[in-house]
Amino acid sequence: MNRQDEDGKSCINTPSNEMEGDKLVKTKRKEAPAHYILDIESLQMLLEILSKPRLDRYESTEFEASGHKWRLILYPEGDKQRNGGGHISLYLRIVDVEKLGRAWEIDALINFFVLDQEDNQYLSIQDGRVKRFNAVKREWGFSRLLPLTEFHDKGYLSKKGRCEFGVEVFVLKSEGKGECFSILDYPIRNYYIWKVEKFSKLGESSHYSEDFTVGDYKWRLHLYRQGVAKVKGQYLSIFLCLHELKENTFWTQFHVEFKLRIIDQSDKLNSKKTEKTGNAWFSATKPAWGFPYFIKRADLEGNKDFIVNDEMVVEAEISSMSMAKELTPDPPKPQEEVRP
């Protein structure tokens, strides 16, 4: 006989029942259970068989799902030892565990099913909790899955005595994948000034500034004097580029708020007129963001204070930086050697 605690709940080698106060989530769907179906053509015949001494449950044959082997355990008149009288009781048991070694544990989500014969839909029953299978608890399920009155009166048992149950089991296995979003410390030196010399001699190709560092990361500015292809000859185009990362970082993307401006060399306050504010996500596949329509070439070259002695000054300011980086998986736990 299985040992139970004073509340009547299983203690060892018995299925775990819904805890007091827990609510089962019941929904209906047309799709059949993905992993296993138990189709009983005559419940009355099965009950006659189970009425014999020490035969109070039906155990399915072994089936494989989510990389492991299982059995479905049905008590059609209730698992009375676990307070399941007057209910359908249904459990899932893991089998063939010898290959798992010592101290094995398997976490899984379980979804049980009962076919509604009248509307040909499956009643899905689960509690949304992760079940941990191990050497002590090899079965999980519900002693009070469905009241027998509801089972008989609401279409789950056909007039000919046919009924159908099912189960889906999804084993949870962490792959160590994920990311962490964090705000980086506000950089002390968060701006860069680029003096673009011999501006009139720049060709149609792009031109890069020297590298500069903000927040331990290297950046540079990317300038098209003639503009990028879609605005060629009409606008000056400027972009901020993420150029190089510090070593040993598992970043996935940066969120950066930045400003780019062309300095009015006679009155710096007038530089606000050309200032553009950017708000973008930088990544390995999208390392550059900026403004193809930064300023009309006619406005730039027509203002003698923006280009002095054939030199234009561009200022970049990074006001905030946030990073999403990969979560590094925990190192594997040491396991005891299993000798043949």
TrEMBL record:
PROSITE patterns: MATH. It comes from the Eukaryota. Residues 33-169, 189-318 form the MATH domain. Gene3D superfamilies: Apoptosis, Tumor Necrosis Factor Receptor Associated Protein 2, Chain A. InterPro entries: MATH/TRAF_dom (IPR002083), TRAF-like (IPR008974). PANTHER family: TRAF-LIKE FAMILY PROTEIN. This is TRAF-like family protein isoform 2. It comes from Theobroma cacao (Cacao). The lineage of its organism: Eukaryota, Viridiplantae, Streptophyta, Embryophyta, Tracheophyta.
